[in-house]
Every structure is written in structure tokens, then in C-alpha cells.
Amino acid sequence: MSLLVKNIGAIVGIDESGRKRVSGKEMSHAAMLENAWLATDGERIKEYGSMENVPAEEGYTVIDAHGGWLFPSFCDSHTHIVYAGSREQEFLDKINGLSYEEIAKRGGGILNSADRLHETSEDELYRQAMERIDEIVSMGTGLVEIKSGYGLTLEDELKILRVIRRIRENAPLEVRATFLGAHAVGRAYKGRQAEYVEHVCNEMIPAVAGEGLADFVDVFCDRGFFTVEETARIIETGAKHGLRAKIHANELAVSGGVEVGVEHGALSVDHLESMGDEQIEALRDSGTMPTMLPGCAFFLGITYPPARKMIDAGLAVALASDFNPGTAPSGNMRFVTSLASIKMKMTPAEALNAATLNSACAMGESKDYGSITRGKVANFYITKPLPSLAYMPYAHQTPIIKDIVLKGKIIKQDILC
Ligand code: NIG
Ligand code: FE
Q1: Average pLDDT, whole number, for the chain?
Q2: For the chain, does the N or the C end have fewer beta carbons within 10 angstroms?
Q3: The pTM is what?
Q4: Ligand 2 center–CA 194 separation, angstroms
Q5: What is the arithmetic mean of pLDDT over 37-60?
Q6: How far is 340 from 270, CA to CA, in rounded Å?
Q7: Which residue has the CA at smallest separation from atom 12 of ligand 1?
Q8: DSSP 304
Q9: Which of 39-48, 98-107, 167-176, 400-409 has the lowest mean pLDDT?
Q10: C-alpha 80 – ligand 2 centre gap (Å)
Q11: Using a 6 Å CB cutoff, which residues line ligand 1?
């Protein structure tokens, strides 16, 4: 099927340079074309231009944007969407004054989710995860990374990764999978962390890679979780099995996670609520994408990452949702960009670049996703007419998305407009 979208108020997020990421000052620019049309050819973007030169409609399925704006779909490079149930009891514990670390120490947190997941069938997990997938698709996400990490036994980690594979086969959006066996020490290994790390390296990674279930490997490198040495051991083992690293780093403390990630050529280091000047320096000239998850800082009430400082230092930064039951129970990427603007002083254009091209880059996918570019996958959504780009993060709860196209297929169309 080929689509022709006509009467577009503005196409936003155009990139004609073919760059893989956008850094520093360049992040404040989002190229736009007003009064435009866009055509697809099967799965890909074919051409776009000004309405003065709109092509004939023959052979196309036509979408009339009626002056609405066309954006590249969000790329969400960090989620934990496959989990069982919810954890609002811990939400109440937090209201009553307990910290995330205190809840984890009492056996809540990740281990609580692991217990629930163990008792939940693969079919039921898939059903619950697909509800969340439908939700994020309706909010504009077109490429998502999903982690395991609520299994913590070989069997249950494989269960999650098989659910992710099933999502990948059936959902309209594009999916990447990450093995996060080192999210916490599994209950059976309580007090034997070193042995658990060996289990992750010697049994889990070979089994996961053997079944081709993951693209990436991740470690929660932080105070009270995994050390820098353990992280290095796990990501080196992952690399031997063809898995690139994405690291949970510096959420609870300056953990060394940024440095170990950069040294090992990690695709991204994520969280970064605790960052000093040395960590920013370590990221300079590296291929590792610093990724911020402001939905987590919002939910936990902790310090936000120093986004302004990082961008002003010339770095590229990405944004992701961290959608998970413990620290960020939402995959709303538009709200993530609002938080980036409100709490981290990122301009709307910086937030858009961080949540599209740079977050695609944090999954190694910016060649095909993250901007409106001829030849890239046709992943975009069309909004109602907007007064300006700033209106998107400003009116953060106003329903705005009318039509959604993923991989060149119409996923949602607002026929009333
Ligand atoms: O990214 N920080 C580690 N992992 C998740 C939270 C996991 C949980 O509490 O369930 C995160 O915030
Ligand atoms: Fe996370």
C-alpha cells in the first residue's frame, strides 16, 4: 500500500543529512516544512514536498491531514513493559516516606515483580503486555526496546524474552529486546551475589543468545545492586555472544556505570540522575548515548539528570520512558518530553530530537527510524492543527494525535476530521 498524506500544516523532524544522532547546539533545531504532503512506498517514506507540487492521487490511499502536523513516531529506547500486575502498594509505601532502596531492601521492588511474574502464565503476561503496547502505540511510539529482568531465574528470564518475541511478531510497532538478568539478585541466590553473576554469565547469556532472544544486554550498575566489576564481567560475556550493552547507571549514586559503559562501547548509559563533571567528560567523544528517563525522577521524587549541562557540554542526549511497575508506570513519551522541558529545561526541539533520532540511535536504529527522511521506515503520527511546536509539551494532557502510521500501515485514522 502507498499512502499520500496531503494538507499537512507542518512536517516536523525532517532530516536530510542522514546523521545518526544530533548533538549539543544542533539539538535545538527541528527542521520543518509547512503546508506539505508526504508519500510512502510500502513500508518506507518515499517523498515529501510543498502542497504547491502535490502529486496526483491515483494509486495512493489518501489521508487528508486537514492542517494537522506530522511528526516522526517516538522511539522509546528503555522500557520494562513485560511485567505481571502492578505495584501500587509500594506507591503507598513511598507516600508514607519509604525510599526506593528501603522498599527493595525489604524484599519489595524488583523481587516483588519477580514473584508475581513467576506465578503468571506466558499467555497472561503477553495479554497484559499487549495492553501496554496498545497504549504506547496510541500515544505515538513506533519503535520500542523491552527488557527482561523480572524473571531472575533462567526459566523466567526466557519466559519474558519469549513474550517479547511474540510481541515483536504481532505488534504493529518495531521491537528490540534486552536481556537484563542482572536487574537484582534472584531469591535463590540471596547472599550469594558473585555466584548469581556467574550464573548470569555461564548459563543465562548463552541460553538467551542461543535462542536468539535478545539484541542487547543490560546490568543495573548502582549502589546496592551490581558493582562495576560485575557489570564489566557481564557485558564482556554479552559481547562474546553478540549482545551490545545498554547500562542502568547512576540512578541511586555515582556508580561507575557511565565509565564502565563507555569503556566497553555500550550503546547507551541510562538514568543518570547522579552525574558529576567527570561523567560528562567521560561521555564526550564516545559512541555511548546518555539516556535520561525523567518519568522515573518524577515518580520517585528524586533529582532530575543535568540535561542542560550535558547538552551545553556538546553531548547528544536521548529520552526514554523506563515504563515499569516500580519507578515509572507510564510509557507516555509526549509526557516525557514535557518533563524534559519543564524539569530539565530542554527546549521543545531538543526534547523532540532526544525522543526520536537520538533514542533510535540508543538502539542502534537511527539509520531506519527517528526522523522524516526519504528511505526511512514510514513511522509517523498526525496531530490536530497546532499553533507551534512548543504546544506539544505545553498542553501535555490534551489529546492531540489523530492518525497513526507505522511501517507504512494506517494503525489509527480519525475519519471525523
Ligand atoms: O529502570 N532501576 C532499575 N530498574 C527499573 C525499576 C525496576 C523496578 O523497580 O521494578 C528502573 O527504574
Ligand atoms: Fe529501567
Answers
A1: 97
A2: N
A3: 0.97
A4: 22
A5: 98
A6: 15
A7: 327
A8: P
A9: 98-107
A10: 6
A11: 80, 109-110, 113, 220, 248, 251, 296, 322, 324-327
Helix, strand, coil percent values for the chain (each to nearest 5): 35, 25, 40
Same fold, 3-72+372-412 and 74-361: no
Question: Among all ligands shown, which has an atom nearest to the Cα of 226?
Answer: 1
Alpha carbon nearest to ligand 1 atom 8, residue = 326
Could you say which of 3.40.309.10, 2.30.40.10, 2.60.120.10, 2.60.40.10 is the CATH number of the domain covering 3-72+372-412?
Answer: 2.30.40.10
Distance CA 146, CA 216 (A): 10
The number of the ligand 1 atom at minimal distance from the alpha carbon of 220 is 3
User: What is the Å distance from ligand 2's center to 329 Cα?
Assistant: 11
- pLDDT greater than 60 at residue 417: no
Is residue 86 classed exposed, middle or buried when 0-12, 13-18 and 19+ CB atoms within 10 A define those classes? middle
Topology, domain 74-361: TIM Barrel (3.20.20)
The predicted-structure confidence for 117-172, as pLDDT tens digits, reads as follows: 999 999 999 999 999 999 999 999 999 999 999 999 999 999 999 999 999 999 99
Burial (CB < 10 A; 0-12, 13-18, 19+), residue 226, is buried
**Domain residue spans in the chain?**
3-72+372-412, 74-361
